[in-house]
Amino acid sequence: MEEFFNTIYYYTNNFYSVEMDNYLYARVPGYLHNGIAMLVFSFIVCAAFYYWKAPVRRQMLWWLCFVGINAALNFIFGLWYTMTPLINNEIEADLEWSYLDCFAFSFTSILWSVLFFVAISLIIKQWSPAKFVPFGKF
Q1: What is the rounded CA–CA span in Å between residue 77 and residue 91?
Q2: Please, is 114 exposed, middle or buried when counting C-beta atoms within 10 Å of its C-beta (0-12, 13-18, 19+)?
Q3: Chain-centre distance of CA 71, in angstroms?
Q4: In Å, how far are 31, 36, 40, 109, 130 from 50, measured between CA atoms?
Q5: What's the CA gap between 69 and 46, in Å, rounded?
Q6: Using CA of residue 57, residue 61, residue 62, residue 63, what is the dihedral sign?
């Protein structure tokens, strides 16, 4: 599972610094932690939409709202996860990354979380009342 998340974050690691990439890849299994949090948040928010909310009208609008909630949760988690070592001075001075790198990593987490949310939606929607969201039946 760690290799899977390392691979997907490899495609977006040019958005943030090499120091942060090395920290998340080599020193701690940061990509694994963020990936598991991304999957858990995406599944919970997606299940909440399809089984708890399951609106009859304006389904696409509500689905987009839940995509936004999922993206916000993943952004906050990614920001917290990458800023905590900086705030607590756990990183050596020559290996530190900037706060802009933390925001960039959080935005890449948003990108991946939306993709996972869509994939989970396509799986879950078959057994829910909102069968036509985000796309019609295949």
Answers
A1: 19
A2: middle
A3: 6
A4: 28, 21, 15, 23, 6
A5: 10
A6: positive
Other C-beta atoms closer than 10 Å to the C-beta of 90 total 12
Q: What pTM was estimated for this model as a whole? A: 0.88
Cα(102)–Cα(63) distance, integer angstroms: 28
Contacts of 81 (CB under 8 A, 6+ apart): 30, 33, 34, 37
Read off φ and ψ for residue 71, nearest 5 degrees: -65, -40
Domain ranges of the chain: 2-127
Cα separation of 76 and 78, whole Å? 6
Tens of pLDDT along the chain (138 residues)? 889 999 999 999 899 988 999 889 988 899 999 999 999 999 999 999 888 876 666 778 888 999 999 999 999 999 999 999 888 888 888 888 889 999 999 999 999 999 999 999 888 888 877 777 777 654
d(CA 127, CA 113): 22
Describe the crossing of helices 99-124 and 2-10 by its angle, rounded to 10 degrees: 120
